[in-house]
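Reviewer 2 asked us to include a model.

Predict the structure of this chain.
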Amino acid sequence: MSKEPPKGYLHGFTREEQDRLRSQARFLEHRVHDRLPFWKARNLLEVGCGVGAQTEILLRHFPDLRVTGIDRSEANLECAKQNLSEVAWAADRYDFRVEDATRLSFEASSFDGAFLCWVLEHVGDPTRVLSEVRRVLRPGSNIVATEVQNASFFVDPYSPHTMAYWLAFNDYQLELGGDPFVGAKLGNLLLAVGFQDITTKVRNIHLDNRAPGERAEFLAFWSDLLLSGAPGLLEAGKVSEETVEGMRAELDLVGHDPNAVFFYSFIQARARVW
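Predicted model (structure tokens):
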């Protein structure tokens, strides 16, 4: 009999991780939230809202929008409520609920927009999630899903400990029931559950000597992202202390190399319900 893979979030639910998610949302804001199609939406569903970091950006970009954010982590939702309570102009414009995204409690046609960001990579059955989202959207509504494509990561100078860690990172995410390559599959997933007008855009982050300041900032951000998974990977025996420390040293070296190169791609898909 096959053993069901463990479920979980590779990065954990610590306060440090909650703070990192807020920083990540702001850092990638101009790439993720570029010209989103929600100018006519008034009642948007955010799946996997976490600590409310993306919620705050959505409410700021669209003043007439109300967001219902769902997540399975009560700790994250409490953090989200605290974070948004400190934003005066967001008052009465959001609602956070504990929900299973594969079994939404909302009636059909409850929302006129949906936003998913870095969520499906942690989901065992993204088709069921997208099917439920489609059910609760009104005809004509837009969905935007932004996801990872982890096979694209590259740094120069070549960093063997970092690449070994990255392979273990992705393998463990698969073992936990997620998919670190789901971004490339978004078109098929949306098509399979009946969305139409589907478009996908590869968003490349290619930083070299032409943008040294941004490169340094992104390498620091990326180092934090990688190291946030280290405690879980070490505890599960997926990497050694030698690999983690070797990665730290390599990333520090890359970060101070005058000819360093960073490359990563993620995918943003947009579609509509008819």
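Residues 1-6 have pLDDT under 50 and may be disordered. The longest helix spans residues 212-228. We have added this to the supplementary material.
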